[in-house]
Amino acid sequence: MGEIRNILIIDPDKRSGDLSRKLRRKGFQAAWAKNVEDALSLVMDGKPDLVLFGLDGIPERSLAAIGEIGELSPGTVVVAAAASAAEAGTAVECMRRGTMDLLFKPVTPGALLECIRRIERRLNNLCIGMTPNTGCVAREHKTLVFPNEIENLPYLINQAVLNAPVVCRDVETLKMALSEILINAIEHGNLEITMEEKASAVKKGAFEKLVHRRLADPRLSSRRVTLEVFMDEDRLEYVVTDEGRGFDYRKEVDPDPNAHIGSGLGIQIARAFFHEVRYEGEGNRVHLVYYRDPRLHRGGRETGPASLTMNAHRPVGGKSGAAGAGDLGDGVFLTGTMNIDVIVQLAESFPMGLLLVTDSERIAMWNQKAEQITSITSSSLVGAHVSEAPAFVRHLLDQSSSHADLVLDEFDTRIYEKTMHTVEPREGRRFSVVIFSDVTSSLRQREELERLLIESAETRDLMEEQAARLAITLAEMDEKNEIIRQQNQRMIEELEMAARLQKSLLPDTFENLNGVSFSCKYIPSIHIGGDLYDVVDLGGGQSGFIIADVSGHGVAAALVSAMFKMSFHALASTVASPTILMHMLNKELRPVLEEDYITAFFVITDRYNKGITYTNAGHPTPLLFRRATGMIEELDTDGFFLGSFDDGGYEEKTVSDIEKGDALLMYTDCILEAENPEGEQYGKERLKACFARCMESLRGNEVIEAIEADVRAFAAKDNLDDDLTVLLLEFWEEVGPGEEMPADGDTGGFVEF
After folding, report:
1. Whole-angstrom Cα distance, residue 695 to residue 699?
2. In this structure, are residues 513 and 534 in contact, taking their beta carbons and an 8 Å threshold?
């Protein structure tokens, strides 16, 4: 059987949804359906390898659903999951209809994985499809001795049944029955695992661990199993001997499957196939006999459980005594004080149906077991002539057949296996004795075994076909993945080139212009971004500084920012007013920007007048640090985003008392919107406090690095969710005594860094 990877869980319990998620984390393809209707469509489309079916307490609905799953996907293995002992009976009936195993809720991933291994091993033990050529062998006798290695049983069984087709046509069922006895010899014999221990471990999903613990015991692991094979033209016999302590094989096996779910079924399977199953000694040695023509042997038959047989083809002899005596045949000779009452009591306690007919064709006995298994009362039969008896009783007396059918109704027909004997307890008298038992369940079990074998073969073929398709699909996926990888690599290289080009368009990170030292840092969230800063020398001791943020990220935002930079360069040196510049930029960009927009802050610094003039187009308000007082001021004006409206309503303000040591911090919204693991934003107040602390002892890029570190520590992650841009202006230089102001009309030149 192929590896089980595709699993469907059918159960309304939410814990089954958790189980499916845990299985996916382990690499399985797992799906969860809360009801049968949704599940059947998944079975039809996905053909899962395994269905874990949670019983819902309504037997008819559960059994019907399992049948539908088998019709939609014959190759799917079904495992039942019972919530309580009350559902165990339904689970056993489900197993008769095709489910491979039973688990108890809640089902853990470990229990399900162990169940999968158990199913794969069980199907592997069947060794289906191996048909040796045995036409040249007439007789065989060999002995196989092997250790407690269940995984090697398929190969040993193949050797044991190599020449079996000479006697037995159904070799596949023979393999299954023999494998169950060999597994019992290892587990229950050599490893001393009781049926109760196995049943408990199977329910807990810990049977594999129990076996491994026993194998770790040197006293148990050193034991061996001996398999003797005897075969001639008429008979096939296996003798299995283990080295364990044995068990009480005389104790009747509980026929109720609920009493030993997961254990004790091996001997039942063997009895359903072999004509004789005989234990010897302390239960360590078992004989398994199969006859080619069971009618030539003692009460033998081709199918059904082993039955008690009675060979009484002729009278043994002996004469009646004063107290009465009777010979029931084949050495069973009643003498002495045993009277007819004892014989009747024995017949009534006999574990099989018993019919006794006199030589005058009168029914003399119909015991209690016969009443139980046929519902025909003895009072309606005893003393009656055979011709007056029901048709079923007459069929029991038909020597041409070894079976008799009893039709209970149009939906139920019971099948009985019978053996006939003739006894002559006294000279001149002859009795016909029929011993019979109900073998309907055994025959149906055999049919189920045959169906399982057929489905297993179909499953194997289906799995091989699916494996071939999967190999082709994987090869195609590898080819497509390589194409995607190459395209992705080219895209990354192009983005890296675009990022280098974008950074080359920005000013240097630290310069001094017209008495203003400026430092800056730009980090895109991906390779390229939409943030922008720039510097222009306006002449006459004046400098223009702008910072902008294009909505969005990536390539589109980067293209808009490049277009904005070109427009800014073309207009900044031609106007002396921040408000006029913003109106001109808005008018030029408005037709281009449809759904996008740009926030921007522009400031003009005047070295000689110790003042700044600025305007704001919806950008986060810059922070002005006053060295003399240590206070922080926010610089803001009215004005909408660039590109949003035809008239942005931009306002202009001036601060005329900029002193040496003052500093202006310009930034984008990435800093304010950074969130910690609790979802709290960094915010402007934290930025103000951090900026004030940094300005006490740091300068230039040191201030920017300290602010960035504080933001990253707050967010508790290495990468931020947005582009980060910071521009710091420090007013250190002033107009000294004797320096002349530039002449009127001297506007200087455009300087790009």
Report:
1. 7
2. no
Structure tokens at 45: 């489309």
In order, the DSSP letters of 577-632 are: -HHHHHHHHHHHHTTT-SS--EEEEEEEEETTTTEEEEEEEBPPPPEEE-TTT--E
Q: Note the pLDDT tens digit of each residue in 307-320.
A: 333 333 333 333 33
- Tell me: the pLDDT tens digits for 413-441? 889 998 888 876 655 567 888 999 988 88
Backbone angles phi, psi at 409, to 5 degrees: -160, -175
The angle formed by the CA atoms of residues 219, 224 and 229, to the nearest 5 degrees, is 165
- Cβ atoms 266, 184 nearer than 8 A: yes
Pick the closest to residue 446 from 235, 279, 602, 305 (CA basis).
Answer: 305
Kindly compute the dihedral angle of the four CA atoms of residues 451, 454, 458, 461, in this order, to the nearest 10 degrees: 160
Give the Cα separation of 285 and 366 in Å (integer): 37
Joined together, the tokens standing for residue 481 give 């993945």
**How high is the pLDDT of residue 713?**
92
H/E element, 329: strand 326-329
Give CA–CA dist 670/692, Å, rounded.
19
Residues of the chain with pLDDT under 50: 1, 127-132, 252, 255-263, 298-339, 735, 737-739, 741-753
Q: What distance in Å separates the CA atoms of residue 423 and residue 436, rounded to the nearest whole number?
A: 17
Question: What pLDDT is attached to residue 711?
Answer: 93
CA nearest to 6, candidates 72, 73, 76, 74: 76
Strand partners, 159: none
Phi (first) and psi of residue 547, to 5 degrees: -130, 135
Distance CA 472, CA 483 (A): 17
- CA 132, 168, 457 angle in degrees (round to 5)? 60
Contact 38, 51 (CB under 8 A): no
Assigned token pair, 166? 């000479």
pLDDT for 171:
85
Q: Give the count of beta carbons closer than 10 Å to the beta carbon of residue 416.
A: 24
Distance CA 456, CA 463 (A): 10
Contact 102, 257 (CB under 8 A): no
Burial of 602 (0-12, 13-18, 19+ CB in 10 A): buried
Cβ contacts of 406-415, under 8 Å, gap ≥ 24: 406/374, 408/375, 413/440, 414/373, 414/374, 414/438, 414/440, 415/439, 415/440, 415/443
User: Which residues have CB under 8 Å from 642's CB, separation 6+?
Assistant: 548, 564, 582, 585, 586, 589, 593, 597, 598, 599, 600, 617, 618, 648
Would strands 353-357 and 363-366 be described as parallel, antiparallel, or unpaired?
Answer: antiparallel
CA–CA dist 572, 532 (Å, integer): 15
Residue type, 658: I
The CB-side HSE value for 568 (13 A sphere, CA atoms) comes to 28
Position 747 scores a pLDDT of 38
Residue written as token pair 């006697």: 167
Instruction: Report the alpha-carbon distance of residue 707 to residue 54 in Å, rounded.
Output: 58
Around Cβ 675, how many Cβ atoms within 10 Å? 15
pLDDT score of 714? 93
Are 310 and 301 in contact by the 8 Å Cβ rule? The answer is: no
pLDDT at 618: 93
Q: How many beta carbons lie within 10 A of that of residue 716, not counting itself? A: 11
Residues 6 or more apart in contact with residue 535 via CB below 8 angstroms = 507, 511, 513, 518, 543, 544, 545, 546, 751, 752, 753
Tokens of 401: 């057949």
Residue 651, by phi and psi: left (phi above 0), alpha (psi -120 to 50) or beta? beta
In the 8-state DSSP scheme, what is residue 331? T
